[in-house]
Structures are given as C-alpha cells and as structure tokens.
Specification:
The protein is an all-alpha fold and 150 residues long. Helices cover 62% and strands 0% of the residues. Among the domains are: 34 residues; 57 residues, no CATH class. The longest helix is centred in the middle third of the chain and has 45 residues.
Length: 150
C-alpha cells in the first residue's frame, strides 16, 4: 500500500452572470386560453358580440368568486359565533340562586321524594357554581404567574 497525499485540483475561472437568461426565468407567459367551441359551426363574430361575450364571461367569473367569498365568510362567522358561545357557556358564573317551585304532591311519599330531589338539585347547582368560580380563579392565577415569568 502506498501512502500518498490526496490533493484536490481547483480550477480558478472568473464566472460571469448572464442577466438576460436569469431574468427570463421570472417572466410568465401572459397568454389566455380560450375554450374552443365546435369549430365547424363557428361563425365570424363582430367586435360588438366579442366584447359582449367577454363582459358576460367576466361577469360569470366575478359572480362565482363573490359567491365563494360570501360562503366562506358566513361559514367563518358561524364557526366563530359557535366557539364564542361555547366559551361563554363554559366560563359562565351565575351569582343569583335558582328558586325551584315544587308541585303540590298528593301523598307523603311524593312529598318526601320531591323534597329530596329539590335538595339534590340545589346542591348540584351550588357545586357547579363553586366549580365555575374555582376554575375562573385558577385561570386568573395561571395568567398572573405567566405574566410574572415573562
């Protein structure tokens, strides 16, 4: 095995930039494609009918584009309203107590059952209000700690 030093040959040429070739890369073709109709039945059209056809074509294109924009706008608005309603529903805190009216029961068992259910519903409502207040305070404390960290 021979021990040889590897060398690299470097060619020192001055490179020139061909600006005309470079700029042609960025030029786009401005041709408009026209949908061909039956060539055999095509009649010579005058300048007036050609202009009218062009205007009708642009009218159709703009109406389709406007319809698509309106459709996406309304979809986005509906989605935003649903998200806002969902957020409000989750973070809503009710301070006023809910008063339940119990129906006039006929027997002692029905009175007892109605009273128990009323108490359970009131307790459940109080728990929900308390959890909502706690969630709100924890969100505020998390926000405050994040501001302090920053």
């Amino acid at each position: 095995m021979e021990n040889t030093i590897k060398t690299r040959e470097i060619i020192h040429d001055i490179k020139t930039k061909d600006t005309s070739e470079h700029l042609t890369h960025f030029i786009k073709d401005a041709g408009i494609q026209i949908k061909s109709n039956d060539i055999g039945n095509r009649e010579e059209t005058s300048a007036e009918t050609g202009a009218a056809n062009n205007i009708q074509g642009t009218l159709k294109k703009t109406s389709v584009a406007a319809f698509d924009q309106a459709k996406t706008y309304t979809k986005n608005k509906i989605k935003a309203k649903r998200e806002n309603a969902k957020i409000l529903k989750e973070t809503m805190v009710v301070d006023d107590p809910i008063h339940y009216s119990s129906p006039a029961p006929n027997s002692f068992k029905e009175k007892k059952y109605a009273k128990q259910m009323r108490q359970l519903n009131i307790a459940k409502h109080k728990r929900n209000v308390k959890e909502a207040k706690e969630a709100k305070t924890t969100a505020v404390t998390v926000k405050d700690t994040r501001v302090k960290v920053i």
